[in-house]
Write a structure and sequence with these properties.
The complex is a heterodimer of chains A (113) and B (114). With 113 residues, chain A is an all-beta fold. Chain A contains no helices and eleven strands. Chain A starts with a strand and ends with a strand. Chain B is built from no helices and eleven strands. The N and C termini of chain B lie far apart (38 Å).
């Protein structure tokens, strides 16, 4: 158990819809990262938040947005969903950069039909 | 542009032998390299890391080697055990922009055969 909690674990929705994925980081971790893993793809970095503020952006689509709340939990919002958005979405957290270890949640599997 | 490449999607090794997983990178600004291990239905878990100023780091059965001139790193597992069967991701960190996000390869599925 990494201490990072993601909900929901599975989500099935239709094209054009909007979903919200939720992440609670490990206690004390200030940084939250979102990654997408599509079929046959590695983990694609989407976005990072540190203590409530956006710190870095990766390959995140404009249809996607995220935020980190004062209690440090984070939400990833995916809108106007397309079939290609079907993927595993991982959240990870860390305290600060030392050896670079990130703690990952179990992921949210999104299926867009 | 794939900054981290794991060219072997899968690797099969006999139990007790050495497993060698390879990774190539293109970004010269990476200052840390990490290996993560992932079992089905679980998130990736950190395995071992190496700073770009070192060429070797060892932790029990796991050793990571870094060849900066070749932009290549490898993970050695000796001896391989059935519980090592998993997908292994290589990752690099470029902190040049102040961000901590890791760039991952696509992973290598290691299968340890009895």
């Amino acid at each position: 158990d990494s201490g990072v909690t993601q909900t929901p674990k599975h989500l099935i929705t239709a094209t054009g819809q909007r979903v919200t994925l939720r992440c609670s980081p490990r206690s004390g971790d200030l940084s939250v990262y979102w990654y997408q893993q599509s079929l046959d793809q590695g983990l694609q970095f989407l976005i990072q938040y540190y203590n409530g503020e956006e710190r870095a952006k990766g390959n995140i689509l404009e249809r996607f947005s995220a935020q980190q709340f004062p209690d440090l939990h984070s939400e990833l919002n995916l809108s106007s969903l397309e079939l290609g958005d079907s993927a595993l979405y991982f959240c990870a957290s860390s305290v600060e950069w030392t050896t670079g270890e990130l703690f990952f949640g179990e992921g949210s599997r999104l299926t867009v039909l | 542009d794939q900054q981290v490449k794991q060219n072997s999607p899968s690797l099969s090794v006999q139990e007790g032998r050495i497993s060698i997983l390879n990774c190539d990178y293109t970004n010269s600004m990476f200052d840390y390299f990490l290996w993560y291990k992932k079992y089905p239905a679980e998130g990736p878990t950190f395995l071992i890391s190496i700073s770009s100023i070192k060429d070797k780091n060892e932790d029990g059965r796991f050793t990571v080697f870094l060849n900066k001139s070749a932009k290549h790193l490898s993970l050695h597992i000796v001896p391989s055990q059935p519980g090592d069967s998993a997908v292994y991701f290589c990752a690099g960190r470029d902190s040049g922009g102040g961000a901590d996000g890791l760039t991952f390869g696509k992973g290598t599925h290691l299968i340890i055969q009895p």
